[in-house]
Design goal:
Layout: H1 12-37, H2 42-58, E1 61-64, E2 68-74, E3 77-82, E4 86-89, E5 95-100, E6 104-107, E7 111-114, E8 120-131, H3 134-139, H4 144-162, H5 179-194, E9 199-211, H6 213-252, H7 260-275
Antiparallel strand pairs: 1-4, 2-3, 2-5, 6-8, 7-8, 8-9
Helix pairs in contact: 1-2, 4-5, 6-7
Length: 291
C-alpha cells in the first residue's frame, strides 16, 4: 500500500526571481558578445542554448490552494505530496495532480431495501467526508470520489438489513427509535470501507427513512395498534395503582370494613371508571349490595 509522503517544494517566488535574474544575465551576455565581437561568439552561443533550458524550468511552477494537495509523480513513480499553500516549484517533468482536502458531503440516492424483518423500506443517508491521505486516494482506488459514493450506498444497504424499521419488542434497537446508535454504526461501517482509500468519514446519518408505498398503510395500522396497546397498558397500570392506593387508605383510616366480595365489586367499579374511554354515568344504589 502506498502511503502519503509529505515533501516541501521550493518557494516559487524565490525560484521565479532567480530565473528572471538568470534570464537577464543571459540576455545581457548575448548582447555584450554581439556588441564586442560583431558576431555571436562561443559564450553567446552557450547563453542562447541556455535560454530554452530556462523556459523548460518555468514549466515547474504550480500553485497549491489552502486545503489542497498536489501529488507529484515522475514517470509513474510517486515522489511525494505538497500541501504548503502558495506558488511552488518542482521538477518540470513531474506530473502534479490536484487533490482537494476540503470537507465534502453528498446524499445517497433513495434505496429500496428490506429491513431485518423483511419489510421493504426506502432509505437514504448523508455522508460527510474528506481526504486525509492523498497517495491512497490517488493510487489505491481508480476514482476515489466514485468509490466513496458506491461504498456509502453499500454501507446503507447493509445497515438496513441489520436493524428493523421500528421496534415492536422491548429493548430492541430500531432505525426509527435509536438514531444516534444507528448513525454511529453507519459512520463506522463507512469508515471501515473507505479507510483503504485514504478517506475519513466525519459524519454519516440517515436523511430519509420510510416504508415502501405498497406496505405503508398496513404498517401504519400496525404502528397505531401497537401505540394503542402500549397506551392501554399504561392506563391499566395506573388504574391498578390507584385502586390499590384507595383500598389501602380506606383500610388505614378504618372508614369501613370490606369483605372480599365487596372489595371485588369496588375494584371492578373503579377499574371501569378509570379505564373507560367514555365518561361514566353514576348510578345511585339505594339498596344493599345483596338486595
Amino acid at each position: 500500500m502506498i502511503t502519503e509522503n509529505r515533501m516541501q517544494a521550493p518557494n516559487g517566488i524565490v525560484v521565479l526571481l532567480a530565473l528572471i535574474a538568470v534570464t537577464g544575465v543571459l540576455v545581457y551576455t548575448i548582447v555584450a558578445d554581439i556588441r564586442d565581437n560583431f558576431q555571436i561568439g562561443f559564450l553567446g552561443l552557450i547563453c542562447i542554448l541556455s535560454l530554452p533550458v530556462v523556459g523548460v524550468l518555468c514549466a515547474g511552477f504550480f500553485t497549491v490552494n489552502p486545503n489542497e494537495g498536489r501529488v507529484l509523480q515522475f514517470f509513474g513513480r510517486y515522489i511525494g505530496t505538497v500541501q504548503a499553500p502558495g506558488l511552488r516549484w518542482a521538477n518540470p517533468f513531474y506530473t502534479k495532480e490536484r487533490v482537494s482536502l476540503r470537507v465534502r458531503n453528498f446524499e445517497t440516492s433513495k434505496l429500496k431495501v428490506n429491513d431485518k424483518r423483511g419489510n421493504p423500506i426506502e432509505i437514504a443517508a448523508v455522508v460527510v467526508w474528506k481526504v486525509i491521505d492523498t497517495a491512497e486516494a490517488v493510487f489505491e482506488v481508480d476514482d476515489y470520489i466514485n468509490y466513496v459514493h458506491v461504498q456509502s450506498e453499500a454501507a446503507v444497504r447493509n445497515l438496513a438489513t441489520n436493524y428493523p424499521y421500528d421496534a415492536f419488542e422491548e429493548n430492541e434497537v430500531s432505525m426509527v427509535g435509536h438514531q444516534p446508535e444507528i448513525s454511529e454504526h453507519l459512520k463506522q461501517e463507512n469508515q471501515d470501507r473507505l479507510a483503504k482509500a485514504g478517506i475519513e468519514v466525519i459524519e454519516s446519518r440517515i436523511s430519509h427513512l420510510a416504508y415502501s408505498p405498497e406496505i405503508a398503510q398496513a404498517m401504519l395500522r400496525r404502528q397505531q395498534a401497537a401505540a394503542v396497546i402500549a397506551a392501554r397498558r399504561k392506563i391499566v397500570e395506573g388504574a391498578v395503582g390507584m385502586v390499590e392506593h384507595a383500598l389501602g387508605e380506606l383500610a388505614a383510616k378504618e372508614v369501613l370494613e370490606l369483605d372480599e366480595e365487596r372489595k371485588a365489586s369496588m375494584v371492578s367499579n373503579l377499574l371501569v371508571v378509570l379505564c373507560s374511554e367514555t365518561e361514566t354515568q353514576p348510578v345511585v344504589n339505594t339498596g344493599g349490595l345483596y338486595s
